[in-house]
Design brief:
The complex is a heterodimer of chains A (122) and B (108). By secondary structure, chain A is mainly beta. Chain A contains no helices and eleven strands. Chain A has strands at 3-7, 11-12, 18-25, 34-41, 47-53, 59-61, 69-74, 79-84, 93-103, 106-112, 116-120. In chain A, the strands form two sheets. In chain A, strands 2, 4, 5, 6, 9, 10 and 11 form a seven-stranded mixed beta sheet that branches. In chain A, strands 1-3-8-7 form a four-stranded antiparallel beta sheet, with no helix packed on it. Chain A starts with a strand and ends with a strand. Chain B is globular and about 35 Å long. Helices cover 0% and strands 55% of the residues of chain B. In chain B, strands 2, 4, 5, 6, 8, 9 and 10 form a seven-stranded mixed beta sheet that branches. A three-stranded antiparallel beta sheet of chain B has the order 1-3-7, with no helix packed on it. Chain B has no helices and ten strands. Chain A binds chain B through residues 46-49, 60, 62-64, 96, 98, 103-110, 112-115, and chain B through 1, 30, 32-33, 35, 37, 43-47, 50-51, 54, 56, 88, 90, 92, 95-102.
């Protein structure tokens, strides 16, 4: 059973960089066919895709965040990370990491972490 | 960007009733790339349906998905107590990947 666990600071100051790590267990992030993504949810709101990476190094980001976001994988630690720069209060959200699957000409997130709340405040 | 509009915003139903949730896309979406999730309070979303109509592993057959083009539907044939939750549709037929705003299914 694949499990994902987010970790990182719960409080980030405005203009600083939000950094989160997702540790994957029960499976290798080097497995082909999988993408490792981040999705966020503003308090009481819907879901917003942040981006994903593949162990090969390829990435895809939400254009609305692309100038500020970097997602990368560390295969030696079986982890992947999110960095979001120049944060503002609008980046306060629950951040989920998830495994993306491209299968049967579809793309979906089948395993999710429990989510970690990040608050941007001075 | 493809905008997904879910309706209704809230559906108030009783256990045993049928729930019909709509997801309408601003542009045509390949059916293969339409997905449905369920989210309960304090939990991560759970994959229900992918490819518009294919149930994910372990999902009961009371959940079904249908549709094509710009109109997609999630149907719960007979609501059980554990089905009261928020449901989201998602598309990735066209980048960026987008989610609908969600439909809350609440107990009447």
């Amino acid at each position: 059973q694949v499990q994902l666990q987010e970790s990182g600071p719960g409080l980030v100051k405005p203009s600083q960089t939000l950094s989160l790590t997702c540790t994957v267990s029960g499976g290798s992030i080097s497995s082909g066919g999988y993408y490792w993504g981040w999705i966020r949810q503003h308090p009481g709101k819907g879901l917003e895709w942040v981006g994903y990476t593949h162990y090969s190094g390829s990435t895809s980001y939400n254009p609305s965040l692309q100038s500020r976001v970097t997602i990368s994988a560390d295969t030696s630690r079986n982890q992947f990370s999110l960095k979001l720069g120049s944060v503002t209060a609008a980046d306060t959200a629950l951040y989920y990491c998830a495994r993306g699957v491209e299968s049967s000409s579809s793309f979906f997130f089948d395993y999710w972490g429990q989510g970690t709340l990040v608050t941007v405040s001075s | 960007e493809i905008v997904l509009t879910q309706s209704p915003g809230t559906l108030s139903l009783s256990p045993g009733e049928r729930a019909t949730l709509s997801c309408r896309a601003s542009q045509s979406v390949s059916s293969s790339y339409l997905v449905w999730y369920q989210q309960k309070p304090g939990q991560a979303p759970r994959l229900l349906i992918f490819g518009a109509s294919r149930r994910a592993t372990g999902i009961p057959d009371r959940f079904s998905g249908s549709g094509s083009g710009t109109d997609f539907t999630l149907t719960i044939s007979r609501l059980e107590s554990e089905d009261f939750a928020v449901y989201y549709c998602q598309q990735y037929g066209s980048s960026p990947l987008t989610f609908g705003g969600g439909t809350r299914v609440e107990i009447k």
